[in-house]
């Protein structure tokens, strides 16, 4: 794609025979790095790329691609190695060693007091650790663009919230600053155990009212991050049950709870919860007591844009496609990667047959990457499309404090000047 774009930009400079509209249509479907190179190569293209109309075309092109993965969008992860240390950027793959991204702007007096809690589309949500009696502060930033907006939450009636859903949006005429430069736009939802939500809009600069959604029903999200597909946020939730008489094993049931978040109004439940059948759980690896529960399960989106449940088994990592409606059923189990083959490609601290415990930490919707920890192999990044892995560390981190970062084109375009 990059070579074709370079040839097109040369033709524009040499002979204006190719309509600019055609070139822009091609650029709108390119990866973020190619778009930035085009903006740097030609003042004419830069002027068009900085135009909000082009941003809308980029957004439409992205929606048209559906759930297709682009592994190049995963730039790296922000990771805290020890308590009290700032989060540092670790590039993925390590060959991008020259790439450095600050999580907080240079000169911030308290960089250690913020921690990343969510990321999507090139933006990161940072949360200041709450001081006793003090307000909670949220900061939404674009590390690539080097700009941020600081959001101080007004007093909330929510005593506790455990999930942040970041929804980067298209640019509009209200997103310009007093200096004439355009800001990225977004909405941010905070969710309390799928019972109450509140939404902040960067366009209005205010929080909406607290909304009751009543989606918990005794189930708790397995992890705070949600998978967002076509305007619907999905959480994998778990409910603890009293084990049957005579059994010493803990007994859980799981379901997928979904909220529609693509409207400017209050989030609403997107249909009934989807129960996870026992056939999907039968092969999963039962963790020892020292390992956090449910890390063998991870909700993901497939390359075809469907919702999927990733399961870490003893011999493999497999995926089940989640039903998309009442008339649909769970898809057949499909092996994503053989665990032994995966571990043969990385350095191990122990013998291969001992490295059985897999903790799945995070999924990237744009790149199709899964960050996981394997006892004896450390921190790995698994490509769901190819089954390939990248080893980031040979050592485990308990807990793994990290926030993977995927590039997003719209926040980057907002920082491009037409000058």
From TrEMBL:
Residues 108-391 form the DUF7595 domain. InterPro entries: DUF7595, F-box-like_dom_sf. PANTHER family: F-BOX DOMAIN CONTAINING PROTEIN, OS08G0203800 PROTEIN-RELATED. This is DUF7595 domain-containing protein. It comes from Brachypodium distachyon. The gene is LOC100831682.
